[in-house]
């Protein structure tokens, strides 16, 4: 696949593909580019409904001009102090930001979360975030408030009494549990509607099916999060394990007592069953 930055013509092809309703992967194949390149390009320039090729091209030129101004003589960015390729790190952070945006996070919030996750310490102060993202303190404050409300980050004070914003394995666990609770609440409300609309009515049956589905999904998330936390991470003994503990393996197992066959007569394929940690 060709490398380098997107040309103006390629951006116009992306705009045409979006107008035709093509998926990012299909547009990327036509350009012989990675799907991630097209996804990042679209998401950082207005999204699939607001993408404009000429505006996107000009925005890219402005960003490149700003980077050249901060690098004397327009030379390539010097390697980071830890030896990493600064340009590769920047590109990866943009890709990570795009993924967060696709999950529904606003751009500023996604950028802040990506910055925290790609920092070795997993924590930054408000001043450090402001400098790293080159945004105003107010923008950082707003993004932090949202992420805290979603339990995606937490704050703590360091030895100098400065507030630091932190992401770690426990934050991810807590945010997963919070999401499962929110999902479970939907099931509770749906079940309340059964009595209101009258058991046996089509609407009540629909709500009961929603409640059963949501109950199963939320309980599965609770169990999986607890199991992963217990098996893959030993609290107080360093970072998460990089491989499964001895005696454990990942297997695909149906969560149902008996996998019911589909209307076509075939049961759910093994490759689509959820992965479960188990002992041989």
Structurally, the number of domains stands at 3
Within the CATH hierarchy, at the fold level, what is the topology of the largest domain?
Arc Repressor Mutant, subunit A
| Element pattern in H and E | HHHHHHEHHEEHHEE
CATH C-level class of the largest domain: Mainly Alpha
Strands of the widest sheet, in order across it, are: 1-3-2
- Tell me roughly what share of residues is in helical segments: 55-70%
Beta-strand residue fraction: 5-15%
Mean pLDDT: 79
Reported CATH architecture of the largest domain: Orthogonal Bundle
What structural class do helix, strand and pairing data support?
mainly alpha
Give the overall form.
globular
CATH homologous superfamily title of the largest domain: Winged helix-like DNA-binding domain superfamily/Winged helix DNA-binding domain
Q: Which ranges are low-confidence, i.e. pLDDT below 50, for 5 or more consecutive residues?
A: 235-245, 252-277
Say how many strands there are: 5
Q: State the helix count.
A: 10
N-end to C-end Cα span: 42 Å
Radius of gyration from the CA trace?
23 Å
Please summarize the sheet with the most strands.
3 strands, antiparallel
Describe this structure in words.
The protein has 280 residues and is mostly helical. It folds into three domains: 1-75, no CATH class; 79-167, Winged helix-like DNA-binding domain superfamily/Winged helix DNA-binding domain (Arc Repressor Mutant, subunit A, Orthogonal Bundle), CATH 1.10.10.10; 168-242. The protein has helices at 8-19, 24-31, 35-43, 53-70, 86-102, 107-117, 126-133, 137-149, 169-197, 202-232; strands at residues 123-125, 154-157, 163-166, 249-252, 275-278. The strands form two sheets. A three-stranded antiparallel sheet has the order 1-3-2. A hairpin with a 5-residue loop joins strand 2 and strand 3 (163-166). Helix 2 (24-31) crosses helix 3, helix 5 (86-102) crosses helix 6 and helix 9 (169-197) runs antiparallel to helix 10 (202-232). It is globular, with a radius of gyration of 23 Å. The protein starts with 7 loop residues before the first helix and ends with a strand. 18% of the residues are buried. One of its GO terms (biological process) is transposition. This is MarR family transcriptional regulator. Residues 103-161 form the HTH marR-type domain.
